């Protein structure tokens, strides 16, 4: 082949790549319009008031102790929900990943079943179950496990229970996908090399399932940070989260600047957290098996 | 480590008696008996579904046989858990741990055995040198080529000096050139270590190249066990003759006292077995004969169907009068090329009495 022909081919290849890339243009445009523009607008709003540029919205967050408390509760509840869904979801996903494919699909359908009903319905169902004379308390009392009804709603436990239920599929799905892709031969290899089953699990399976755990945890955690309906209903106004404060600022006080500042801080905190996890865990190395 | 089948030692014999494994009505292993000498390289050769991998997995301990006995040396390991058997296994798809470096993979069995850091580093370096991967310790698994991964798997399986080395079609994912190269490497490694090795393959040429002995397995039973040359030159049945090497088998006339093919006696130095019912014709043992060659040759008349030039040889297919097709291989030296018959020419194919093998349908 002459060098000239090679150049022509290379040009063709480049044009073809561009053409294929252009197929993603509608999606890129959509992301630009519905995500980047509003976030940019939010950012802008948080720095202006009727007199022009201001940092008052941010100063208020730093100076007012109540805001610190709200952020603390938001992160704490999100953290608790993430840990509990991980503890519940990991064994469940492991079980599903070890089942024959057909049974696993049935199991996954059951996990996803709650998605078929409205979030609101599920949340009110929890309210019914968890209240003072609800099913949970009356069952525990009739079994003689407790004498006094537990307070399970309008407090942190209630909010966490409801959110865990809603969030569990978001943990199970990425975990299941990762675990399914782990070659069972690797465990056999570990055993043949002298590892008892439990040791093979902790030295081979667990580290390889870590990317799924991280993905699931990030999904749950980030979703929880902005969760509104469930904590609002099950917290009964006694649990104040950032999302509620944003709504309050925007709808009651019509203070878009304050609401935007809260949103921006939440977003920044989330991104920082994301970066920290990326630096702590060698995700790239774990993903190396994909090749 | 306590409770292990054997201490590490290179030459442990394996004894297998009446091993049975069934899946429903299907007998994957049908009362298998096998003696593998200490330090021997034995290949299990068979078509897919023959039971060769089942037998290997039973030796490894990943599969519990219904009945029978497996011994490593004097120790009964039939019911011993796989992690206590002290076996090195090389799997078909390498099964390397993707979250560990090359050195991490090779060090894994040593870590499990509680071996110290300095000793581990020494043994890992030794094993990597043995498979010619010195200096690859810090690489990631996904940076390696197929052949290199195979070498890491091999190093990992031998680094703890296992009593038995098991290999399940380890070269099947490699291309032909690399495969042939690795065959020689594994052979050399075995000569260095002298560890009792059981190797599974469906590739008869690979089996012939590498093994001390080959056990041909079919339908969960051994069809024949022997040294490569014995298996090729003296197949015990139609199945073995066809499975190892290329061969056309012609059915002998039924009911005749002496072996005959379409009325003509078949001359052979083979001890005539009463049950013999086929004559084996291998391409490289056949040649074209003319009227002068007589006494010692069995002759088969036919016409040349096709002539295929393959580089190192020429393959002629000859259709006999009865419709059977024979293949014969000729060298590509100038003299042979000049004497090639034309297509559709009538020829006579000769098989020397010394090379004439008769085999029964089934091995008794």
Plain-language structure description:
Chain A has 291 residues and is mainly α. Chain A has a domain at 72-239: MetI-like fold. Helix content of chain A is 78%, strand content 1%. A two-stranded antiparallel ribbon of chain A has the order 1-2. In chain A, α3 packs across α4 (65-98) and α9 packs antiparallel against α10. The longest helix of chain A has 34 residues, at 65-98. In chain B, strands 6-7-8-3-9-10 form a six-stranded mixed beta sheet, sandwiched between helices. Helices cover 24% and strands 32% of the residues of chain B. Residues 1-8 of chain B have low confidence and may be disordered. Chain B is globular, with a radius of gyration of 25 Å. The longest helix of chain B has 18 residues, at 176-193. In chain B, α2 crosses α3 (117-130), α2 (102-112) runs parallel beside α4 and α3 packs across α4. Classes of the chains: A mainly alpha (291), B alpha+beta (364). Chain A binds chain B through residues 183, 185-186, 188-197, 199-200, 203-204, 207-208, 285-286, 288-291, and chain B through 1, 60, 62, 81-84, 86-89, 91, 93, 95-99, 108-109, 112-113, 140-142, 156-157, 160.
- Name the strands of the widest sheet of chain B in spatial order: 6-7-8-3-9-10
What is the alpha-carbon Rg of chain A in Å? 25 Å
CATH overall fold name of the largest domain in chain B: Rossmann fold
Beta-strand content bin of chain B? 25-35%
User: How many discrete domains of chain B?
Assistant: 2
Q: State the helix count of chain A.
A: 14
* Gross morphology of chain B: globular
What is the name of the CATH architecture of the largest domain in chain B? Answer: 3-Layer(aba) Sandwich
């Amino acid at each position: 082949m002459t060098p000239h022909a090679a150049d022509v081919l290379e040009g063709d290849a480049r044009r073809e790549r561009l053409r294929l890339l252009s197929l993603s243009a509608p999606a890129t445009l959509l992301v630009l319009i519905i995500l980047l523009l509003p976030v940019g607008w939010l950012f802008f709003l948080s720095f202006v008031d009727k007199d022009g540029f201001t940092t008052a919205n941010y100063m208020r967050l730093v100076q007012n102790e109540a805001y610190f408390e709200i952020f603390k509760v938001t992160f704490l509840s999100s953290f608790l929900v993430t840990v509990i869904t991980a503890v519940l979801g990991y064994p469940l996903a492991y079980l599903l990943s070890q089942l024959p494919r057909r049974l696993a699909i049935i199991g996954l359908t059951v996990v996803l079943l709650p998605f078929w009903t409205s979030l609101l319905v599920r949340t009110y169902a929890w309210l019914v179950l968890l209240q003072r004379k609800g099913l949970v308390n009356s069952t525990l009392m009739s079994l003689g496990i407790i004498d006094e009804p537990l307070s399970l709603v309008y407090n942190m436990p209630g909010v966490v229970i409801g959110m865990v239920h809603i969030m569990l599929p978001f943990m199970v799905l990425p975990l299941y996908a990762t675990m399914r892709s782990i070659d069972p031969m690797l465990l056999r290899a570990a055993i043949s090399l002298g590892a008892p089953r439990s040791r093979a699990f902790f030295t081979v399976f667990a580290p390889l399932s870590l990317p799924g755990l991280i993905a699931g945890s990030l999904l749950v955690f980030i979703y929880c940070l902005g969760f509104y309906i469930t904590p609002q209903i099950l917290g009964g106004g006694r649990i104040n989260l950032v999302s509620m404060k944003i709504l309050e600022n925007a709808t009651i006080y019509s203070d878009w600047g304050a609401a935007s500042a809260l949103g921006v801080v939440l977003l920044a905190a989330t991104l920082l957290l994301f970066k920290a996890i990326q630096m702590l865990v060698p995700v790239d190395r774990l993903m190396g098996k994909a090749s | 480590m306590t409770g292990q089948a054997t201490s590490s030692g290179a030459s442990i014999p394996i004894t297998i008696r009446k091993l049975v494994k069934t899946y429903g009505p299907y007998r994957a292993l049908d009362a298998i008996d096998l003696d593998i000498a200490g330090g021997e390289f034995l290949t299990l050769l068979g078509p897919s579904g023959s039971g060769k991998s089942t037998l290997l997995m039973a030796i490894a301990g990943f599969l519990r046989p219904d009945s029978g006995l497996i011994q490593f040396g004097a120790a009964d390991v039939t019911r011993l858990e796989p992690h206590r058997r002290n076996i090195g296994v090389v799997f078909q798809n390498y099964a390397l741990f993707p979250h560990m470096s090359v050195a991490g993979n090779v060090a894994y069995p040593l870590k499990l055995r509680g071996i110290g850091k300095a000793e581990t580093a020494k043994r890992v370096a030794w094993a990597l040198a043995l498979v010619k991967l010195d200096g690859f310790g810090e690489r990631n698994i996904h940076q390696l080529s197929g052949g290199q991964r195979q070498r890491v798997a091999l190093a990992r399986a031998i680094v703890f000096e296992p009593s038995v080395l098991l290999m399940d079609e380890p070269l099947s994912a490699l291309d032909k050139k690399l495969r042939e190269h690795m065959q020689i490497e594994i052979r050399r490694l075995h000569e260095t270590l002298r560890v009792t090795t059981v190797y599974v393959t469906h590739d008869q040429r690979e089996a012939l190249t590498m093994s001390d002995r080959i056990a041909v397995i079919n339908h969960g039973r051994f069809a024949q066990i022997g040294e490569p040359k014995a298996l090729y030159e003296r197949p015990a049945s139609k199945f073995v003759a066809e499975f190892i090497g290329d061969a056309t088998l012609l059915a002998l006339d039924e009911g005749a006292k002496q072996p005959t093919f379409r009325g003509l006696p078949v001359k052979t130095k083979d001890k005539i077995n009463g049950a013999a019912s086929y004559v084996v014709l291998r391409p490289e043992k056949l040649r074209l004969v003319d009227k002068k060659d007589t006494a010692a040759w069995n002759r088969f008349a036919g016409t040349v169907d096709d002539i295929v030039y393959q580089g190192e040889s020429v393959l002629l297919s000859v259709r006999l009068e009865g419709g059977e097709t024979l293949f014969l291989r000729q060298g590509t030296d100038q003299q042979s090329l000049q004497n090639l018959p034309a297509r559709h020419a009538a020829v006579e194919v000769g098989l020397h009495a010394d090379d004439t093998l008769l085999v029964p349908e089934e091995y008794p």
